[in-house]
Each structure stands twice: as C-alpha cells, then as structure tokens.
Design a protein that fits this description.
With 156 residues, this protein is α/β, with parallel strands linked by helices. It is built from 5 helices and 9 strands, in the order E-E-E-H-H-E-H-E-H-E-E-E-E-H. It has one domain: Glutaredoxin (3-Layer(aba) Sandwich). The N and C termini lie far apart (30 Å).
Length: 156
Amino acid sequence: MKPLEIGKTVPNLELPASNGETVKLSDFRGRKVVLFFYPQDLTPTCTKEACEFRDAHASFGEEDAVLIGISPDPVKSHLKFIEKEGLPFLLLSDEKLKAAHAFGVWQEKQLYGRKYMGIVRSTFLIDRKGRLVQEWRNVRVNGHIDRVLEAAKRLK
C-alpha cells in the first residue's frame, strides 16, 4: 500500500469504537481530526500520551478538533483504559491493522536487540475536508501534545 501523502484525502476506514459503534473517518468531515496511533492500552508511555491528550481535550475542542486514539487492542481493553484514566475521547480498535497499514505505522521495531513488528507512535492532523495536513512519526511524548495543538490552532 502506498504511504499517505500530505494534502491527500485520508482513507475512509471503518473501525469499532469504544462507544460501541462502528466509526468511519468521514463521520468527522467538517471538523479537524487529530488521529493518534499508539502501541498498547495501559502501558506507561501510551498512558502518559493518552493522559496528556486528555488534559488538553478542552483546548482541542476550542479549536473544533476531535481527538481519536487508535491501537490494535480490542474494544474491551479500550474500555478499561478509558475507565482507569478518564479518557474523554474515542478509542478505535484496529485489530486487523487496516488503519495501521493505511497510515504506514505498522513497522519493524527493535527493543533490546530483538526485532518485531508493531505500531510506531504517530499522530496525524486531518483538515475539515478529510485531507492529511500534518504528520508526526516516531513521536516522543514530551512536548508533543503542545506541538499538535499549535498546528490545530493554525489550521483554519
């Protein structure tokens, strides 16, 4: 699959969501969307990232931006994560890795010399017409949410 390009319309993927519905990205046309991919619910770095997005949720709302998290975890795991951390946004379950492949975030990783396939922490800013306008790949959490919020503010 060809990697996503800035300025192109994002694929209209359908995924099961933490609200019990199946969500399509086109459901959010007319609003800015911040889509963040993370490896796993309830792990230290993923929790830190999700909680920082949680703490900035109102600020993103003021910019008419919807926050959506995606990981390969099942909805049941997402519900535990939401309950434990008080997350106010949807988490989508990408167990079949459709979104991960479409956005090019399922890649070979290495930890302690061991190679394996996994989600590369990444964030995508999508405009009101469904076009990709900015991406952050191989994200380090510190300061990341502030950079994404600034980009959302600049996007009209």
